[in-house]
Amino acid sequence: MSGKIWKAIAVSMIFILHSILCSFNIFAQSYPNLTDLGLQSKSAILMDAETGTIIYEQNSHEKLPPASITKVMTLLLIYDAVADGKIKWEDMVTVSEHAASMGGSQVFLEPMEQQTVADMTKCIAIASANDAAVAMAEKIGGSEESFVQMMNQKAKELGMEDTHFVNACGLDADGHLTSAHDIAIMSKELMKNYPEVTKYTTTWMDTIKHKTKKGETEFGLTNTNKLIKWYEGATGLKTGSTGKALYCLSGTAERDGLSLVGVVMAAPDFKIRFQEVMKLLDYGFANYMVEQGTPSGECVGQVEVFKGMEDTVSAVVKEDVSILRKKGENQQLESKVELLPSIKAPFEAGVKVGELVYLVDGNEVKRVDLVTKDAVEKVNVEKMLHRLLKKWCSL
Fold first, then answer.
1. How many CB atoms lie under 10 A from the CB of residue 158?
2. Do β-strands 205-212 and 114-116 pair in parallel, antiparallel, or remain unpaired?
3. DSSP string, 358-383
4. What does the pLDDT read at residue 109?
5. Which of 41, 43, 60, 68 is catalytic?
6. Which of 110, 87, 107 is nearest to 98 (CA)?
7. What are the tens digits of pLDDT across the range 337-369?
8. What order do you get walking across the sheet with 312-317 strand by strand?
9. What pLDDT is recorded for position 25?
10. Cα–chain-centroid distance for residue 78?
11. Which pLDDT score, from 0 to 100, does residue 85 have?
12. Which CATH superfamily, name and number, covers 299-393?
């Protein structure tokens, strides 16, 4: 075979190899999940609960019935209402005919029966009680319909673009849809802002007392989420199953400072939903870690004070941050301080004066506010004269 033919073959092979590599690069950019976890669920996602970073996803934006995972939003609005002072944990909730009529999973509340907000919330978080969820919806919203409007408004605020709620408990209804992506968002929001919910979501068994005209009886609650028995570090969160939704689960867990949310929707049976969420969580813990940033309250610099009783004020880190890192990658985490040149008095403690920027291999990954450590009052005449005298004496 002549040299020209060999040369032509070599050039052709190089061209083919280049084309394959280019195709692979396009594929990699379009589909970040090069790892196939072989999930049978129709939709799934794994998210870092601190940063919201998506670690793995599979049809995560497909709109599907969420069943009782709906109650994650119901719980979030309950905790919001308590935090805002609209209700208290010891407040009594009266069960309406409508709430008592809910089918599916329930704790068999009777019309006009009363339970505390705390016990209703316990029934929702542990036993996935539809009747308790609707009773709380009516307590907070005035009616279930009004509460559902609050649910959809909250979803909009959180950027849950795949979501439309129709009821507060998750029973099948036309148009009651969300996605694995949006479930992860509201699950992250609940666990991050109200970690005290784990008081209930990690409880395996508990009881409530029914107090009706017939007398007082004790009713047992058993957690529907088997993860808290089966998975190390499990913190919650919510199961769901109906004829349309099949089997769904939002599972949360924490290990070594890394908090994850794993969601599957439309799993073929109740065991597979647990197995596949555990597979998601295993993948996350095996491949990712978190690195803590500069602790909150730590001073990282000084800002000059203009017309203040003090010449400078300390700039401190406003809040703790975690940086998600992939294990095995030798990436260098760095930070840089960006401060205002000065701040005019008077001002309170906690006023923003800059940002602490985190970079991995030179690329920005996170920013956190820097705030004044102390309040500084406006300079008075005596202090100003003292400064002038000191300046003159130094000349």
1. 16
2. unpaired
3. EEETTEEEEEEEEEESS-BPBP-HHH
4. 94
5. 68
6. 110
7. 999 999 999 999 999 999 999 988 888 888 999
8. 333-339, 352-360, 363-372, 312-317, 299-306, 342-344
9. 35
10. 16
11. 97
12. D-Ala-D-Ala carboxypeptidase, C-terminal domain (2.60.410.10)
Q: Cβ atoms within 10 A of the Cβ of 96, count?
A: 18
290: alpha, beta or left, given left = phi > 0 and alpha = psi -120 to 50? beta
The answer to whether residues 343 and 358 touch, using CB atoms and an 8 Å cutoff, is no
- The fold of the 43-290 domain, in CATH, is Beta-lactamase (3.40.710)
Separation between Cα atoms, residue 326 and residue 334, nearest integer Å: 16
Torsion on CA atoms 83, 87, 89, 93, rounded to nearest 10: -150
- Among candidate residues 41, 96, 105, 128, the one labeled active-site is 128
Tokens of residue 169, six digits: 């408990």
Instruction: Name the nearest CA neighbour of 188 among 255, 259, 125.
Output: 259
Active-site residue, selected from the candidate residues 41, 60, 71, 187: 71
CA distances 297 to 300, 301, 349, Å, are: 9, 12, 12
What residues in the chain have per-residue pLDDT under 70? 1-35, 381-395
Q: What pLDDT does 384 receive? A: 63
- At residue 325, the pLDDT reads 86
Find out whether 251 and 8 touch, Cβ atoms under 8 Å.
no
Q: Is 71 a catalytic residue?
A: yes
Per-residue H/E/C for 102-171: CCCCCCCCCCCCEEEHHHHHHHHHHHCCHHHHHHHHHHHHCCHHHHHHHHHHHHHHCCCCCCECCCCCCC
pLDDT for res 390: 67
Residues contacting residue 278 through CB under 8 Å, at least 6 positions apart: 227, 230, 231, 251, 262
CB 170 within 8 A of CB 162: no
- The alpha-carbon radius of gyration of the chain (Å, integer) is 28
> Any idea where the domains of the chain sit in the sequence?
43-290, 299-393
Query: 155 and 184 in contact (C-beta within 8 Å)?
Result: no
